[in-house]
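Two proteins, back to back. First:
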Amino acid sequence: MTDGVTGTDGATGGRAAQLKHTGLRPGWTTGACATAATTAAYTALLTGEFPDPVTITLPKGQTPSFALATEDLTTGDRAMAGVVKDAGDDPDVTHAALIRATVRLLPPGAGVVFRAGPGVGTVTRPGLPLDVGEPAINPVPRQLMRSHVAEVAARHGGTGDVEITVSVDNGAEIARHTWNPRLGILGGLSILGTTGVVVPYSCSAWIDSIRRGVDVARAAGRTHVAGCTGSTSERTVLAAYDLPEDALLDMGDFAGAVLKYIRRHPVDRLTLCGGFAKLSKLAAGHLDLHSARSQVDKTFLAQLALTAGADAPLAERVATANTGLEALRLCQSRGVPLGNEVARRARDEALSVLRGAPVEVDVICVDRAGTVVGRSDPA
């Protein structure tokens, strides 16, 4: 950085400027790697040749290229390609994992079918964004693979009807170091990612980047800033308030860092926006929202559900829910505004950390799709 406000590339704020300031190298999600492997395998099925490297387009327009670590085209109706995941500077347990996609041709009209190969888990309990029995390939990676299959089909004369089996070498062993077994995802890892990019987190570097982001916003005269847990919540804030880029803080899991710095360097208004589960941790008093350092307290959510109007049987179901998302859905199905209660409690916790600093706070909870499921000041 050349000064206290502006980066050498001219970026003045927002997530890109924060990442640049950390000096950490981003990487690629398992979903991006699976998409690259799928694209290469399907291309080989239609042309007889594997593209290497293979280039894909991510949801935000980036076009990374991936070298193939393995490939196989021994039959006329299926092909396999594999990509080694590079997580950049993030301490990701899946870094260097070999992610394979085997693509098999299906009859016209069959569509795209996903299967879990060795090392990829299967959903066995409710409360996740996938139905029980489905391979643990999350919705955004599925859509990314579908779109690339369609592009390859259009380019090379295919129908786009394929079965995609994703596997991860040693995935079952790696998954033992994740929360998958507790969530009922059995047999291996999940294929994840909403942007395709792994944003690396070094606690000290990222907290420093948050402080720089606040400094940039204040220097630009911004009176309203937003701390977002990720790209989905950032889109929600932009739709709600149309804030400029330099008013957006990528707080990630470091809600406490945002609040403590703004306590010392106030702005008129702070919006906190994030996933329901993460903000339920803030509501319960946790300032570090990382899954390794704080967990969703379903007993606490049951207490909030009672406050929001749930009866005792519903509260008991919330207390034994598999995930925060399942707890939310249980309450939504009964018209109990648990999301609003979590947002209000999270705002109360934020105000307690601000210790009387002249900052107006509002909180927005979203689900994985970015739908608003709770507000501290509901309309």
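And the second protein:
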Amino acid sequence: MRRFKQALTTAVLTALLVGSTAGWASESTGSALSGPLPGTAAWLADESLGKELPDPTTATPSEVAVFLADLTDTQQRRLAQDHPTVVGNLDGVPVSLRYEANASAGEQVLAYDPRGRGLIVRVAGDLENATHVSVLVPGSDIDISTFDRTAQSAADLQEEAGDDTAVIAWAGYTTPSGIGPDLATGRLAETGAERLTRFTEGLDATGLPDPSLFCHSYGSVVCGLAAPDTDASDIVVMGSPGMRADDVTALGTDAHVWAAKSPDDWIDRVPNVEVLGLGHGADPTSPDFGATVLPADDVPAHDEYFTPGTSTLTVFAAIAGGDL
């Protein structure tokens, strides 16, 4: 009983420590975005092509890609103009068509949903012609209003990796906000993993290379849960509270798993436990976990792994560019 109480206490401590990277708050996020994409009803009612359009809720990215491949460029563009909120967010749609549908949200925006705190996905580099593709999965407190720092990290990684690499800043899930149970549980990560898996399936359906996933903080929980179902070539976690797996084998992936943690990262104070659904499990940088541990001694803080000049950005770029 004493050991159980100690474990429970540790798990509760985890809930308090796995905190916000943008400032401490007192409430959790609430519900993740759910339901059909905005504009789905009008999309499904569209009979202009003389055939049914794929249901955004049930059609796989491959089915979407096959459907659109049978259309002319003019037909594709008309769908983007008439149904931008569907075309702009539908995995399996060609990159250029998604850009066109999301043009009002900025350049090279691959997804945009302003509901709630909002979801957004933006590309750094030439995704359509890239030899290598990376997806940056952020942690807590990232939404449309705070997305610029994730976009900047993606831009810094892409610049370091070179012109043949595209980096996608993927704020495509509802992240935890402030201090609360969402930070220490897998609820939002489970939904995020489903969305990330579908997103990577969409990349594959449109003929893009298998991606490398770069997963920061709570984003590493998302990547850990998504690992068995993605075709990622590499999974890189940094400042991770755990991946909800005991070791690399338990992730169920063929990807090369890498991990980095700065000695100056406050995440090191978070107990690596998972008890009664609280906590995210083993430290990915621990020897028993089995990941390749990357140097991070010069990273000054939890949010600085992509800072230009750090050893982490240098090695991340080598991984992203296929040099490691």
